[in-house]
Design brief:
Elements (H helix, E strand, L loop, with lengths): L36 E5 L3 E4 L4 E10 L5 E9 L5 E8 L6 E9 L4 E12 L1 E12 L8 E12 L8 E4 L1 E5 L19 E6 L2 E6 L3
Parallel strand pairs: 1-10, 2-11
Antiparallel strand pairs: 1-3, 3-8, 4-7, 4-9, 5-8, 6-7, 9-11, 12-13
């Protein structure tokens, strides 16, 4: 899709002129070429509980006929809903690299770099990125997790054909097994009587 946006169009006297915009599109003809590598989230659709953390594992899957020497990519999230609190290299990772969860907090961008001197192929774990729920985030809101690849090359410096598998994080309404505090003493059996202003009621004993 090609979309035009006109910021200003005036005559010689500085008067605004009406403008008609005609957008366009580029159609890709022929069968798509096979990709050499896929940057993916191993669990694409996560559910996060307020007050708890969610770890998102990031990996790259490189075909056996190619090898990865260097990669640079971004992950974008909605900073109004979630925020990263930690990013570490995956325990099973064979690549060197760095992760910057504070790369751009206002726009919700995390930056990743990965290096392999001799090149590597197969499913390559890269990083574990930990999120928490932002303070004002509403329940059931969904933050996209969008991957943008900046650079993906083999040991010769040749760019690899890539694709990215995006994901999302949904904010849960609360834990299903949340603890409850009930009125009563542990030694009572059944209910605990309450009275106030002549009226009485009962409540289950605490557990």
């Amino acid at each position: 899709q090609l979309a035009l946006a006109v910021l200003q169009f005036v005559d010689t006297l500085g008067n605004d002129l009406p403008v008609a915009i005609s957008d366009g599109a580029i159609a890709i003809d022929g069968a798509p070429l096979p990709v050499d590598a896929t940057v993916r989230l191993t669990d694409r659709y996560g559910l996060i509980i307020p007050g708890q953390n969610l770890v998102v594992a990031i990996a790259v899957d490189v075909t056996d006929t190619h090898s990865l020497a260097a990669a640079t990519f971004l992950l974008q999230y909605n900073p109004q809903l979630v925020r990263p609190v930690q990013c570490v290299r995956a325990a099973a990772s064979s690549l060197l690299g760095s992760c910057n969860p504070a790369f751009n907090l206002s726009q919700g961008l995390v930056k990743f770099n990965a290096l392999s001197g001799e090149g590597a192929s197969g499913l390559l774990p890269l990083f574990d990125l930990t999120f928490e729920v932002a303070a004002a985030a509403p329940s059931a809101a969904v933050s996209p997790l969008a991957i943008t690849v900046l650079n993906l090359v083999d040991p010769a410096g040749t760019a690899l054909r890539w694709q990215a598998e995006d994901g999302s994080i949904t904010i849960a309404t609360g834990p299903a097994d949340a603890a409850q505090i009930l009125v009563g003493a542990p030694e009572t059996d059944g209910v605990f009587a309450l009275s106030q202003g002549g009226a009485s009621s009962s409540a289950a004993r605490w557990m």
